[in-house]
């Protein structure tokens, strides 16, 4: 994490629902949750939860949710929106050093977070650490792209990722059954000057920790 990234998201927190709606559609979370097969009564962590895009859909489905965020202002937004839901647990922390016990959750979701973290490899390893046996990690992020205005204007740290790299990182973190699929969704954005537009494909990556024989 850098103060730069955290202060950017602190500043944009109150507008994030509106801003992010322009970037990607609700179909992203519906497809991510359906692929995972998340069911009521199970436990999930939403890493880099922002103002609660994924968290909201998990709570609606009846899951217990741990929302982890670096930005205190984003966490305030989540608490304001869902504080009456007893299934929600908000924690301030970093993707590379998650404030969650080992093996604590059935699912980990990270939507549009990986391209913001300093070390995607460390973040993936942490997400896998907090999964229980049989648990599933679902990451939705950007394909590799060439739009540098996203770095300059939105504090992106990585210009998307090669699918082969992410597959390798998942497997190195000991996930089995790794699949990388096109979501059929894109992330759209226009530069401040209006002279450049990005429409970047969003692949969905998921992998499971396979249940070990007792
Ligand atoms: C593009 S937003 C996505 C927010 C949310 N997942 C969504 O789908 O709307 C990225 C979020 O990740 C958070 N973030 C960035 N780097 C992080 C890190 N190292 N640890 C935890 N959260 C981080 C930011 O504060 C921001 O809220």
Describe the structure in your own words.
This protein has 214 residues and is of the alpha/beta class. Helices cover 34% and strands 28% of the residues. The protein contains eight helices and seven strands; from the N terminus they run H-H-H-E-H-E-H-E-E-H-E-H-H-E-E. It has a seven-stranded mixed beta sheet with strand order 3-2-1-4-5-7-6. The mean pLDDT is 90. It binds S-adenosylmethionine (SAM). S-adenosylmethionine (SAM) binds next to helix 1 and helix 4.
Characteristic key phrases:
214 residues, binds S-adenosylmethionine, 7 strands, alpha/beta, seven-stranded mixed β-sheet
The overall pLDDT average reads: 90
Number of strand segments: 7
Tell me the structural class: alpha/beta
**Major β-sheet, in short?**
7 strands, mixed
Distance between the termini: 39 Å
Write the layout of secondary structure elements.
Elements: H1 3-12, H2 16-23, H3 27-36, E1 43-47, H4 53-60, E2 64-69, H5 72-82, E3 88-92, E4 105-111, H6 120-129, E5 131-140, H7 149-154, H8 163-172, E6 176-190, E7 197-208
This protein binds S-adenosylmethionine.
In short:
With 214 residues, the protein is an alpha/beta fold. 34% of the residues lie in helices and 28% in strands. The chain is built from eight helices and seven strands; from the N terminus they run H-H-H-E-H-E-H-E-E-H-E-H-H-E-E.
